[in-house]
Write a structure and sequence with these properties.
- With 491 residues, the protein is of the alpha/beta class.
- Helices cover 44% and strands 16% of the residues.
- The strands form 4 sheets. It has a 6-stranded mixed beta sheet, sandwiched between helices. The protein has a 5-stranded parallel beta sheet with strand order 9-6-7-8-16, sandwiched between helices.
- α8 (169-176) links the parallel β7 (156-163) and β8 (183-189).
- 53% of the residues are buried.
- The protein binds pyridoxal-5'-phosphate.
- Residues 106-108, 141, 221, 258-264, 313-314, 392, 418-419 line the site of pyridoxal-5'-phosphate.
- Pyridoxal-5'-phosphate (PLP) binds next to α11.
């Protein structure tokens, strides 16, 4: 099976190559044409456990990997709170899909527990022996989840860039205390988009260049190896609803997804292409609502103020994975995609044609919520349902409310929950009407004393750990920083 760049069909790659390279040489993203034509028996998946579901979905989309079952088992074994990985719980008239029960309490653990295994296995298949250097830009959660996945994995090194002052203190402590001989964490003066653009530019600058025998790869969701493992929990939540007798197999389910880089929600669209009866995919944004406007009008316009919100992992104005959706919706016309991406780069804006807009609106709904709306939702759902949400999940909860008020059916609604409330204790405490302790670790205890909800072990342990990473650089210096690091033997 062949992956191709969204911008140029001649740039093709096997699934192992696509996972190793992360991004296509022209800056496009690797995609599979006609996923809906795969011979995939989605119904039989519903009876399987999460690990088996995962192995089957991964094998179907990444066929060059050998023994996916073993990779999946070793990737997840003992790392999550439950063997089902991502439980679904009922909260009032909705269902919450809890994706944060992994080693760093963020949904990115689902994919990043597996990606290092995929990269190591891909190197075997491709006969590559040099170091793989993982470059990652993070809005807060990817960085730690990637560090956790890659630290001390032989043959790999990882460099994480995060926006200086742009992540929560808990998120920052998670990253700056990371242990491992192959890890490097660096703050960039700028926002997430600056860090992400910087990483993309480094890939472009290093294409074809010898970096002391090392090769660059990405742990961001531009890497197809990040997206495919995320398809699994859409199936898992659906199977849970079938097994609970809430629906019969074949009936639709709506999913509301707190969205930033458009990776999570795109995995839901992949699930639909594989046959899963997904109703609407509802794209939930915070005040950075560039996607809400896009889905409503067909105009993607990033020329707007950047807002720092209480849901920082969604503070994004350039959603990389939207490029993959455009590619699928325009019938895999790579020139069309390349033109839109050029417009975005040169003018900061593009408009899609009417046909594409109609297809988009047939599959996706959207909405946005302010910090105040999200805080109200945290308070109300806690008071009425005894369920504690983090600010990202709360944004999705608000948008699910807007969606349910306007929809025409009564299909179940699943809200994806992407982080533990303990990753953002100050915002959650404020939402609950408390004055948060200025020390964020004291705030963890304060939230626990107030709610009785257990603190995830990995977060409770943080305060004892020494800070190991203190670098701060300008965004213009990211390339020279990487080149210098790659040249150093001892990290
Ligand atoms: C990354 C992240 C998101 C956004 O997911 P995308 O795949 O980037 O759209 C939402 N919530 C949390 C907590 C995240 O870490």
């Amino acid at each position: 099976m062949i992956y191709q760049s969204t911008r140029d069909h001649r740039l093709a790659a096997s699934s192992t190559r696509a996972v190793l390279d992360g991004i296509a040489p022209d800056g496009g993203l690797y995609m599979l044409d006609h996923m809906e034509a795969l011979d995939f028996d989605w119904r039989s998946l519903l009876e399987k456990d999460t690990m088996s579901m995962s192995a089957e979905i991964l094998s179907a989309l990444l066929p060059e990997f050998a023994d996916m079952s073993a990779l999946v088992k070793s990737g997840y074994a003992g790392k999550f709170e439950t063997d089902e990985l991502t439980p679904t719980v009922s909260v009032g008239d909705r269902h919450v899909l809890e994706l944060f029960r992994g080693p760093t309490s963020a949904f990115k653990d689902v994919a990043l527990s597996l990606l290092p295994r995929l990269i190591t296995a891909a190197k075997d298949v491709e006969g590559e022996s040099g170091d793989t250097v993982i470059l990652t830009a993070t809005s807060g959660d990817t960085g730690k989840a990637a560090l956790e996945g890659f630290h001390d994995v032989p043959g790999t090194k990882i460099i994480v860039f995060y926006p200086h002052g742009g992540v929560s203190p808990v998120q920052q402590a998670q990253m700056t205390t990371q242990v491992g001989d192959n890890v490097c964490v660096c703050a960039v003066r700028g926002n997430f988009d600056d860090a992400q653009t910087g990483v993309k530019n480094i890939f472009a600058a290093c294409a074809g260049r010898d970096l002391d025998g090392a090769r660059l790869s990405s742990a961001n969701s531009i890497n197809i190896g990040r997206l495919v493992p995320q398809i699994v929990y859409y199936f898992k939540a659906y199977a849970d609803l079938v097994n609970a007798g809430r629906i019969k197999a074949g009936q639709p389910v709506h999913y509301v997804v707190p969205t930033g880089n458009f990776g999570d929600i795109l995995a839901g669209y992949f699930a639909k292409l594989l046959g899963l009866p997904v109703g609407k995919l509802v794209c939930a944004s915070n005040a950075n609502n560039v996607l809400t406007d896009f889905i409503e009008t067909g105009v993607y316009d990033k020329r707007r103020p950047f807002h720092k919100t209480t849901s920082p992992s969604m503070d994004i104005l350039v959603s990389s994975n939207l490029e993959r959706l455009l590619y699928l919706l325009c019938g895999c016309d790579n020139e069309y995609v390349a033109d839109r991406m050029r417009e975005l780069k040169e003018h900061g804006v593009y408009r899609v044609n009417e046909t594409l807009l109609q297809k988009l609106r047939a599959e996706f709904a959207c909405g946005c919520a302010s910090d105040e709306d999200a805080a109200d939702a945290i308070e109300t759902v806690w008071r009425e349902q005894g369920y504690l949400m983090d600010p990202h999940t709360a944004v999705a909860w608000c948008v699910s409310e807007q969606f349910m008020a306007s929809r025409q059916d009564d299909a179940p609604v699943v809200v994806l929950s992407t982080a533990s409330p303990y990753k953002f204790p100050a915002a959650v405490l404020s939402a609950l009407g408390q004055e948060p302790d200025a020390d964020e670790f004291a705030a963890l205890d304060q939230l626990h004393a107030l709610t009785g909800v257990p603190i995830p072990k990995n977060l409770a342990a943080l305060r004892e750990m020494p800070v190991r990473h203190t670098d701060v650089i300008d965004k213009e210096d990211m390339l020279s920083y990487v080149l210098r690091k790659v040249g150093e033997k001892q990290w």
